[in-house]
Amino acid sequence: MTIEGKHIIIDGFECDSLHLNNIAFLENLCKKAALDAGMEILYSYFHQFQPQGVTGVLVLSTSHLSIHTWPEERYASLDFYTCGDSDLTAPVNLLLKELSAQKAMVYSIDRGVTQPQLIYCNEITTTDNSKGENKNVSTD
Amino acid sequence: MTIEGKHIIIDGFECDSLHLNNIAFLENLCKKAALDAGMEILYSYFHQFQPQGVTGVLVLSTSHLSIHTWPEERYASLDFYTCGDSDLTAPVNLLLKELSAQKAMVYSIDRGVTQPQLIYCNEITTTDNSKGENKNVSTD
């Protein structure tokens, strides 16, 4: 397995609060995103905070997918890190769409690279408030 | 709990191969780094690959600490993400020291921020090959 990988960092804002507090929804969503990307899930751990908030991690044979949510702030932070050269564009768009994120800061980092990188932010917003109408974001 | 947090991304090169394949060593090291930083560990999952390599995640009440290792390449990728304003400099230096990383690319990302950031790399190297003599790295 190559040491080089792709790490997509997502800060999603103005999400659907109910979804952000629904542990089953979030676990199913993350599993779908990982499986759609062809990942093997080694382990899944999701935790419900009280009075609200969920934190979860999928341990993958090719690294991990994590989510931490703050329903009261309509904010979710996600990390999707996989070694190899999988294209994560579709699963990242799925995550943003299903969380109904109206705005997101997306960073893409090449892991396992021995030279310093300058990391730019890909800011995405949607002017359509209907669920699932985020602009697509490329993770390349 | 504030949505703002600090995410330290570490790509460690020229590490100690034996340590990178020692699941008990790595789990204990990660737990020590997290506890030293005042974190609460909700769950720990570490997996030993065959013929070599370890992947592990600590789920924290304040996000997560993950490690993925490639002993054959002397490479370890780590993520230490915590909400709040904890100073992660000491635990990050502990991780690099105990893995005997001779070179590392370290990125620090402020999570939960609604404005785009430009992320710079903090490259660290050590000319001293003895264990634990890495230059210190600030995560501020």
Can you walk through the features of this model?
2 copies of one chain form a homodimer. The first copy, chain A, has 140 residues and is of the alpha+beta class. Helix content of chain A is 20%, strand content 39%. In chain A, a hairpin with a 5-residue loop joins strand 2 and strand 3 (54-60). The longest helix of chain A is centred in the first third of the chain and has 14 residues, at 23-36. Chain A has a 7-stranded antiparallel β-sheet, with helices on one face. The first copy, chain A, contains 3 helices and 7 strands; from the N terminus they run E-H-H-E-E-E-E-H-E-E. In chain A, helix 2 runs antiparallel to helix 3 (89-98). Chains A and B meet through strand 1, strand 2, strand 3, strand 4 and strand 5 of A and strand 1, strand 2, strand 3, strand 4 and strand 5 of B.
What layout of secondary structure does this protein have?
The structure is a homodimer of 140-residue chains.
Chain A (H helix, E strand, L loop, with lengths): L4 E9 L3 H4 L2 H14 L4 E8 L5 E7 L2 E8 L4 E9 L5 H10 L4 E9 L9 E5 L15
Antiparallel strand pairs in A: 1-5, 1-6, 2-3, 3-4, 4-5, 6-7
Helix pairs in contact in A: 2-3
**Low-pLDDT stretches of chain A:** 129-134
- Tally the helices of chain A: 3
Give the N-to-C terminal Cα separation of chain A: 20 Å
Shape of chain A: globular
Structural class of chain A, by secondary structure, is alpha+beta
Into which percent range does the helicity of residues of chain A fall? 10-25%
The rounded Rg of chain A comes to 14 Å
- Quaternary assembly: homodimer
H and E string of chain A: EHHEEEEHEE
Biggest β-sheet strands, sense, barrel of chain A:
7 strands, antiparallel
* Topology, number of strands of chain A: 7
- Strand residue content of chain A: 35-45%
Mean pLDDT of chain A: 91
Spatial arrangement of strands, main beta sheet of chain A: 2-3-4-5-1-6-7
For the largest interface in this structure, which chains are involved and how many residues does each contribute?
A-B, 45 and 46 residues
